[in-house]
Design a protein that fits this description.
single chain; alpha/beta; Rossmann fold; 5 helices
């Protein structure tokens, strides 16, 4: 099995999650490639059995570099007639999206639109969306947003427990898709 993890991280929260996914896959014998979004442009996602794409939530949207990557990739696949009406599943292709968020105002609701956006990208390419993962991350640069928001004190997150949960989710996913 070949896996690709694509991510964008501004403060390190999303990078921690991406690295945990990569390490867990490798420890499970999966051929895994980890790339920041700025280095993933040349990758053909259909060359992989399992594709992860992750980003933080910025005002309930993916950051601009992620949106630009998706726009470029959609154009690339559309020009090659890979985007089909009804988005038929491509056999053996699975995708997972992961979103880090601080949610000082409305909690996880600030992250869900990002997960849905990323998921729609993979589904349009025919990937079977096998997971939407949301991980709390510290709001770097603002103690107030990291301590007084809807989620309470989130300083230091994602913490080891959060990353252990991601590793568990990766292992459960592999059991499911390997059958």
């Amino acid at each position: 099995m070949k896996a690709l993890i694509i991510y964008w991280s501004g403060t390190g929260n999303t990078k921690k999650v991406a690295e945990t996914i990569d390490n867990t896959l490798k420890n499970s014998g999966v051929d895994s490639v980890l790339k920041p979004v700025k280095e993933a442009g040349a990758e053909d996602l259909h060359e992989y059995d399992l594709v992860f794409i992750g980003a933080p939530s910025h005002m309930w949207q993916p950051p601009a570099p992620v949106q630009e990557y998706i726009k470029d990739k959609m154009n690339y696949y559309r020009e090659r007639d890979y985007i089909k009406l009804g988005s038929p599943k491509v056999r053996g292709k699975y995708g997972v999206v992961f979103t880090t968020y601080s949610g000082p105002h409305t909690g996880i609701n600030e992250a869900i639109p990002v997960g849905k956006y990323l998921g729609q990208f993979l589904e349009h390419l025919g990937f079977d969306l096998a997971g939407e993962w949301y991980v709390v991350g510290e709001f770097h640069g603002s103690e107030e947003n990291s301590t007084k928001g809807r989620l309470g004190d989130i300083r230091g997150r994602p913490n080891q427990q959060d990353l252990d949960n991601i590793a568990r989710d990766v292992n459960e996913l592999l059991k499911t898709i390997k059958g």
